[in-house]
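Sharing in case it's useful to others searching the archive later.

Someone asked me privately for the predicted structure of Minichromosome loss protein 1, so I'm posting the question and my answer publicly. Question first, with the sequence:
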Amino acid sequence: MELHPKYPHPAGKTCVAYSRCGKYLFTTGSNNLIRRFLAGVNDEPDTIDFSSCPLSLATSEDHFAVAGDDGVAYLYDLQGKSPKSILARSALPIRYLEFSPSGDEIAVVGDDTVIIVNIDSSSPKRLPFQGHALTVKFHPKEPLVTCSLQDGSIVILDIAEEPKVVSTLEGVTPSIPDQSDNRCSFAVFSPQGTSVAVPTKVFDVALYDSQAWVQDYRLTGAHTNFLTDVQWSPNGRYLATTARDGQVIIWDAVSREAVRKETVSEVIQIRWHPNENEISFTTESGRLYSCPAVPDGLPTPLGPPIHSAKKQRALEREMEDLQAEPQSDGLEEDDEENGDANGYDDLFVEQPRKRSKVAQTVQKFNPGTPWLNNKRYLCMNDTGYVWTVHQDSDHNTITISFHDESVQRDVHFSDPDRFDMASLTKTGCLFANSETGFVAMRFHAFSNDNWEFQIDEGDKIAAITLTDVVAVVATQRGIVTTFSVYGMVLDVTRQRNVFALAGHGRTVLVLRHFDQDRLVYSVEHFGDETHGPDYLISDAHLDVAPSELRTIFFGEFGDPCVYDHAGCLMTLTNWRSSQTQARWTPIFDGPSYSSKNGRQESYWPLGIVDSELLCIPLKGQQRFPPVPLPVTASLPLMIPGISEIESEYLCQRVMATQNTAQDEEELASVETALDKLLLRQFQLAASENRINKCLCIVRRLNQPRSGEAAVQIALHMDLTNLAEKIQGVLEQ
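And my answer, the predicted structure tokens:
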């Protein structure tokens, strides 16, 4: 591909960065200028004069920052032309800037300083290694940073409180005694935070596991000189590298192969467009190049972050083996006769032919997927997934796969019982054949504790669920049997028209038909093995029709969750304290999220992990996850219909109230995070001179120092009357 450069600056260090929204592309250069381009547009850029020779550039959602050889780092509004504030001053040049994922803080690294600055208060957090640090890279989710040093070592720091060393990598990256050297020597986290890419002194890229800090693999055999930059694609599927050998390379981190190479001399920085298949890079001669990143026909570099390139590689290899297996012509012909556009059964929830008594028209809920090419999922959750392959008239094969392979390897076995239901936990899996009524509990580790159960002849199984404590089996005749996880019968009740079950620990969620188009739910708790369940909630109405339900599960803190076909995820709140206070709160809306991010996709939820929705993105008109399972994604929770900042606060507050296991230190940390979000709302309301709204926000603050911060914000905005009123609220 022929590349066409732009010439924003003369020869010298030329930095480049996209705004996080993708609207702008910034460059800085040796002519003491900042250029602000509209990304993807060939118009002339805005030109901003800078006070010295710029050496570093960084962007966030709302700001950009520039620092230079005069030792001053400035903060700008994204569309501004003059500095908003001074972030830091140093006697020597400042050579590196990086915003935190939230944009509230920025790392400032110079010849004699390395600090993290809060952009609102400009209060610095001083890191060790003053005078010989090169870069600071933030973890996307956790309070961790990697700090690269001149001697070639990389130090991982926990910055939640006082900086504390977590781990150190030595002897991997090149030593760089001269801080103006353009060789890169740092460790950059993947967008999901599970992997870390490190340029090595032998011209490779080493990929490390960010939990154990051990090397997984390397991208090798392409570069022949020191690397100058390494950057992850927005979804973590690809890596872009530049080097002194004049090569620009796009790597597929899953296949571990180079998928694109360009030759451009003196490239020193490269960046990915956050919303388009595009990269931009700059050279020491002051040139700027923008071009497509990943060739057509390959997986996209965009979308939600993939969970693990290593896991995706294993899945794709496994499916190559499965696709070589002979297929059953009979089942493929059945799919064709059904005539569904994507090869799936026509309906996921089986509808009755006639409207009559509820007992005669109970719809069948399937927590997995229909058959496609002789394969289907029996269940999927945040632990893993269970899928079956039709082999012949005598048996199927079943595979249990786990998202975290370090905990448990995949389990594969022959299935003569033709199980069509499954419920998976970290310790075992409960299987059932709904037609024959046969139930089997299988522990992942070899164990004599495996057990089986057969329901009465003539009855069929309606739903099953398994937790780490109990297993529950409900039949179409209304017999609900609860077992201990080792097969002891704990309780038998009569509950007609059971539609679906889900469980967590000692708690079970039961959905039943109220009538043809309505469901009721109960929450049962098994305190111990000596008596039956306590009904925390009994037959409360659920505002989701049976035909609209996609899946049910429990969140990370043990709260029931419901996801419907419209893409709305709801969690049950306040249910532990009182049945009358329990309510379903929406915490994610798939159509709103995909529209906001310019995507045409829906989402299949697996669970809530780290207060984010773990899910499978479904492209276009896909209704169910294909086999093999695509890479999982973690999406931020969001409440539809309100602003992003209000949604983030309410979602975090919901998650905080559901986490009942917090100690005092964790609680203080949560309160601080909530107060930061409230202060952002406060600042916006204050800028609009909405005094009463500001006071409402202040009354919701949790910590005294947050109230003091609100006073300082008001004073900074010359709202002295507001500051006085806030002081009065605080004194009350």
